[in-house]
């Protein structure tokens, strides 16, 4: 009897010591690299279904774009039927979960093209202008413009005019209070010159930038904030209307200048904001000296590099220094207010 009790005590002691050893061993691993544990848990929920297929197919040498998604199923071209059944790949047309709402001439086309490289993004190619111009056509019409997408893929579109359209915030909110909003912003003066360059390309007889920027056409007069290329750059005013409907955490601001100098860095932040795995990286870009802009190393189905078209990255006219100075003074308080509202200094002088 006493022998049996003694054996039970020894077993308990052994169990206790083993537990202690396991506990200390775990503690050592955790202390030597706590990041691993955090990284593991934070990495788990963000893998979207097509990203998983993309990984499985190891597409690193075979970059997958929206164009390579089968139009009828929405699955990546080349995915087998077993992949499709396993993942219940049934593509449907859905309303967007994310919108690039502005700003005109900010770099919105570049951003959309870069995002389209991501296997979990499906984007409409042209600008629907639903919330600003075609709202009376209804949500079914709008939905019909969207590409087919799988569950878990993010559907998006870009219409830069939404940012400055008075009706858009309420209408977007009526469609979805959870939609994610992206705004590409650029120095409002360069943006205005870019806008003006586009106007001249369509109407060469238009008055000079200098005369249109001031109330009576003379640089001695007040800046004319009603001239559309200048009015669009009053970012804080336009943003106010959006913040009446959406919390700032639901909006992401892309630094337009950095989208040119560091596209991969800006893309990392956008992918994080959209809850996507960082698949679009510096591997996808190269700087094209002739164009003066980053371009894509290759598009799907082609081994050729791809730059945006000729209407993106036009040469700007030279604007008088005095006019630039006056516009800087004009925009300074608006820019500072905008920085405060978004909690980010964009560094425009
Ligand atoms: N990678 C790359 N390639 C070419 N262009 C680039 C790129 N990244 C940003 N940009 C800048 O995008 C500006 C055009 O902006 P948007 O696409 O928003 O214009 S639009 O509102 O859709 O007309 C365009 O303005 P301009 O330079 O005035 O033409 C570019 O400066």
UniProtKB/TrEMBL annotation:
Disulfide bonds: 295-307
Main localization (coarse): membrane
Pfam families: Sulfotransfer_1
Positions bound to 3'-phosphoadenylyl sulfate: 105-109, 186, 194, 312-316
Compartments (UniProt record): Endomembrane system; Golgi apparatus membrane
GO molecular function (one): transferase activity
EC number: 2.8.2.-
Domain Sulfotransferase: 96-333
UniProt-listed InterPro entries: NST/OST, P-loop_NTPase, Sulfotransferase_dom
Lineage top rank: taxon: Eukaryota
Keyword Transmembrane helix: yes
Membrane-topology annotation of the record: Single-pass type II membrane protein
Name this polypeptide is given: Sulfotransferase
Annotated organism of origin: Coilia grayii (Gray's grenadier anchovy)
């Amino acid at each position: 009897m006493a022998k049996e009790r003694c054996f039970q005590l020894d077993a308990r002691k052994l169990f206790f010591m083993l537990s202690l050893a396991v506990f200390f061993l775990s503690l050592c691993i955790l202390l030597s690299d706590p990041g691993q544990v955090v990284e593991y848990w934070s990495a788990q929920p963000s893998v979207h279904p097509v990203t998983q297929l993309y990984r499985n197919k190891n597409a690193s040498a075979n970059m997958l774009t929206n164009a390579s998604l089968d139009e009828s199923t929405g699955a990546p071209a080349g995915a087998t039927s077993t992949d499709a059944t396993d993942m219940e790949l049934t593509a449907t047309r859905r309303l967007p979960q994310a919108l690039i709402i502005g700003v005109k001439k900010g770099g919105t086309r570049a951003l959309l093209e870069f995002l389209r490289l991501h296997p979990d993004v499906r984007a409409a190619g042209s600008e629907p202008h639903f919330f600003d111009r075609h709202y009376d056509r209804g949500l079914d019409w709008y939905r019909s413009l969207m590409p087919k997408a799988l569950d878990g893929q993010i559907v998006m579109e870009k219409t830069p005019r939404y940012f400055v359209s008075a009706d858009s915030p309420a209408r977007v909110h009526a469609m979805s209070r959870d939609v994610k909003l992206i705004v590409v912003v650029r120095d409002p003066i360069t943006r205005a010159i870019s806008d003006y360059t586009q106007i001249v390309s369509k109407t060469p007889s238009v008055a000079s930038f200098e005369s249109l920027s001031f109330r009576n056409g003379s640089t001695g007069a007040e800046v004319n904030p009603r001239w559309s290329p200048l009015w669009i750059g009053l970012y804080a005013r336009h943003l106010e209307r959006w913040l009446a409907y959406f919390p700032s955490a639901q909006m992401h601001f892309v630094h337009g200048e950095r989208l040119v100098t560091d596209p991969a860095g800006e893309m990392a932040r956008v992918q994080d904001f959209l809850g996507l795995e960082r698949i679009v990286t510096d591997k996808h870009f190269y700087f094209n000296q002739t164009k003066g802009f980053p371009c894509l190393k290759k598009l799907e189905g082609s081994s050729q590099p791809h730059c945006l078209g000729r209407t993106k990255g036009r040469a700007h006219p030279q604007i008088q220094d005095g006019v630039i100075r006056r516009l800087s003074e004009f925009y300074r308080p608006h820019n500072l207010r905008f920085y405060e509202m978004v909690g980010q200094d964009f560094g425009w002088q």
